[in-house]
Design brief:
A hairpin with a 4-residue loop joins strand 4 and strand 5. Among the domains are: about 120 residues, Uridine Diphospho-n-acetylenolpyruvylglucosamine Reductase, domain 3 (2-Layer Sandwich), CATH 3.30.465; about 180 residues, Alpha-Beta Plaits. The chain is α+β, with helices and mostly antiparallel strands. The strands form four sheets. Strands 11, 12, 13, 14, 15, 16, 17, 18 and 19 form a nine-stranded antiparallel beta sheet that branches.
Length: about 425
């Protein structure tokens, strides 16, 4: 047994061993030799999605330090090793004058691990991080390395949010764009009445908007706006934002926690790579001692779903550190929580009380079922395959593809059995 744990420390991987290939060729040999195998990213998922009863493989030692970052400026793409962290990629792209369209709240996560679970940032027009993927180099069950591209692989849209079920992604190619500047403005205490009456205006006020709340009381505690400096940014510099007032010092999403871990705010422009994530690479993201859950609902249900969450504050708030509400654009990726619909994310950062959180999740999911809520694949949730399948129009196609590329179930694990294949 390996002694390895996930980032949150709530899970000890069951895997018998953890291997660290130093090259893609070594990775291919390891996969070919294994009977059960999974890739491990930066371990930021809160459930057993990455685990296996066989061998875990970390890609961190392949092109360590980001030496393998290949920019194609004509095609506007970058190709990276799957294990590379977004923070390292962002720094290098910025140095070369390029940018990604978005980051998650933290830059610490690996590219392949993030796209495998449809990890997202925020912004009405921003698809999740997987929506930038245009190419994949995948080590398949027999150890063969195969290259797929969005331009010509017929089922490419099914391969990107893979939950690790289709093989080990050795390299990922992402769309890039010219670098841009972003400023962050934070507003405090926005009355819910104003936010809910003007929800579309609130979330379209900047390139990316996040609302933070503990669901108690009559106001959302923070609105965190990330505006591209070149855009007309009507919200930036305002003295009133839907009843909220500008924060006069940097704010951490968690009440009372120092903002030293956060990217610079107070309207100071800086490169996208230092602003699009909430948390700074060299610091602990979020609280560090926590669990997370998130449900993605169609944008049209935003107000109704927020009202339901507010009505459950008595059950939610005692277990909660903070919640974040974000928006995302629709995509066509089969297992993406934003497949076919613009969405909002209702995110919950919980106190590390897993038993109590897991007892509450079925009730929360029952209440949000009316809104076709899809859970984030990398966080804690209750629903299993039978409940998840109707939420994703291409679920059956995904299962068929996984069966086709992995007939011996080398990449299957307990998570996939419960949540996807229903065995
Ligand atoms: C503090 C914190 C903040 C977070 N903020 C956000 C946020 O803002 N938005 C959001 O959407 N999520 C967020 N998350 C969740 C996180 O982004 C996801 O859980 C993400 O999948 C973690 O990536 P990872 O590299 O740690 O992958 P892991 O958790 O290690 O693995 C996740 C999955 O990816 C697979 N995988 C990893 N590498 C490969 C590979 N090379 N080939 C094939 N499959 C692979 C694994 O097998 C597993 O199935 C947050 C998590 C934490 C801890």
């Amino acid at each position: 047994m390996t002694e390895e744990r996930n980032w949150a420390g709530n899970l000890r991987y069951r895997a018998a061993a953890l291997q660290r290939p130093r090259s893609v060729e070594e990775l291919q040999e390891m996969v070919a030799a294994a009977s059960k195998v999974r890739a491990l990213g930066s371990r930021h998922s809160f459930n057993d999605i990455a685990d296996t009863s066989g061998t875990l493989i970390s890609l961190e030692d392949i092109d360590a330090g980001g030496t393998g970052i290949v920019v194609n400026s004509d095609a506007r793409t970058v190709t990276v090793t799957g294990g590379l962290r977004y923070g390292a990629l962002g720094e290098e792209l910025e140095r070369r004058g390029f940018a990604l369209h978005n980051f998650a709240s933290l830059p610490h996560i690996s590219v392949a691990g993030a796209i495998a679970t449809a990890t997202h940032g925020s912004g009405d027009s921003n698809g999740n991080l997987a929506s930038a993927v245009v190419g994949l180099d995948v080590v398949e069950a027999n150890g063969e390395l195969r290259t797929y591209s969005r331009a010509d692989a017929p089922d490419f849209a099914g391969m990107v949010v893979s939950l690790g079920a289709l093989g080990i992604i050795a390299r990922v190619t992402l769309e890039i764009q010219p670098t841009f500047l972003v400023r962050q403005d934070v507003f405090e205490n926005l009355p819910w009445t104003r936010v809910l009456e003007n929800f579309d205006a609130v979330t379209s006020s900047a390139y990316s908007v996040s609302l933070f709340t503990d669901w108690r009381g009559e106001a959302a505690s923070l609105a965190w706006l990330k505006s591209r400096v070149t855009d007309s940014a009507p919200a930036a510099g305002r003295s009133d934002f839907f009843g909220g007032t500008p924060a006069l010092q940097g704010r951490h999403p968690l009440p009372g926690v120092s903002a030293v871990n956060c990217t610079e705010q107070l309207g100071v422009p800086g490169p996208w790579s230092d602003r699009l994530a909430h948390f700074r690479m060299a610091f602990t993201p979020s609280s560090g001692d926590e669990l997370q859950t998130e449900y993605l609902v169609p944008r049209g249900h935003a107000v109704g779903a927020i009202e339901v969450m507010r009505s459950m504050s008595k059950q939610i708030s005692p277990l909660l550190l903070v919640s974040e509400i974000r928006t995302m654009a629709a995509d066509d990726l089969w297992l993406s929580a934003n497949y076919g619909r613009d969405g909002i994310g209702l995110h919950l950062t919980w106190k590390p009380e897993q038993g109590a959180v897991e007892r509450l999740l079925p009730l929360l999911e029952e209440k949000l079922a009316a809104f076709d809520a899809r859970p984030h694949w990398g966080k804690l949730f209750h629903a299993e395959a039978a409940a998840l399948e109707p939420l994703y129009p291409r679920f059956t196609d995904f299962k068929a593809m996984a069966e086709r590329v992995d007939p011996e179930h080398k990449f299957r694990n307990a998570f996939l059995d419960r949540k996807v294949f229903g065995v």
